[in-house]
């Protein structure tokens, strides 16, 4: 048989006794401790006043010093900085680079207006430049080989859209060359004084010579990125190696400044990414491998 409830027991007691029991219960309930709310992330009134007037630790909770000790981020200590460097070595390296070049920026001498541009890539390839300049046939041979590599890039990008129905590399190349032409018109850098031209180079005779940035390098990066997406990693590595040799040849022949080559790599990656986002926004269904379907898919996107 279950025990009687507390209400039933109280109702069966005499009136005075029942009142005493209920009063004891009320007193016990009122004696319970009420825990304060957890502290917020903002300083209290005393700390805020100290912080405002620069109290320097005279508030009831230590003022600015005490508040900073309680609220400072984890990385604002020697152990915290060591932990960040251990978990994010690349970010730590770039942070050191920022500090380094902040000092370089205020101490490096500028090139005088009448002096030729200073290019460390030109200095590194000075001996190779002298050898090519002394052998015109070698200059023409290297230019012809470079033109063949450019044709290989173009052939792969055209095959990707016409033969395999994948327009991303073609869209990236169109974006890249359009941007390169606009930048080449907007800021025309002087042709290097030691430039070694060749009729075998592309474009033939360097009719439209834009220096910034390197379309040769950017086109090779776009093609190599497409190969990686398709699992053609050996071919991508081959294109990367040929792109590196192409960069050395362009520096030795003074066909590009070093910054043109570096930005060409970044431009290839950037426009490949933008082309992917552009095509993903269209969200069209997969296309077949026939050329007519490729054209329809490209126009619909």
What descriptive keywords fit this protein?
single chain, 65% helix, PDCT1/2-like, 301 residues, mainly alpha
Order of helices and strands: HHHHHHHHHHHHHH
Strand content: under 5%
Shape call? globular
Computed structural class: mainly alpha
What proportion of the residues is helical, as a percent range?
A: 55-70%
Measured on Cα atoms, how large is the radius of gyration? 36 Å
Number of DSSP-assigned strands: 0
Largest sheet, if any? none
Which regions contain 5 or more consecutive residues with pLDDT less than 50?
55-61
Q: What is the distance, rounded to the nearest whole angstrom, between the alpha carbons of the first and last residues?
A: 79 Å
Task: Count the DSSP helices.
Answer: 14
Mean pLDDT: 77
Give a verbal description of the structure.
- The protein is mainly alpha-helical and 301 residues long.
- It has a domain at 120-300.
- It has 14 helices and no strands.
- It has helices at 6-12, 15-30, 45-53, 63-71, 78-87, 89-105, 120-124, 126-133, 136-162, 168-186, 215-229, 233-252, 258-282, 291-300.
- Mean pLDDT is 77; it is low at 55-61.
- One of its GO terms (molecular function) is diacylglycerol cholinephosphotransferase activity.
- The chain crosses the membrane at residues 90-108, 141-162, 169-191, 203-224.
- Residues 118-277 form the AtPDCT1/2 transmembrane domain.
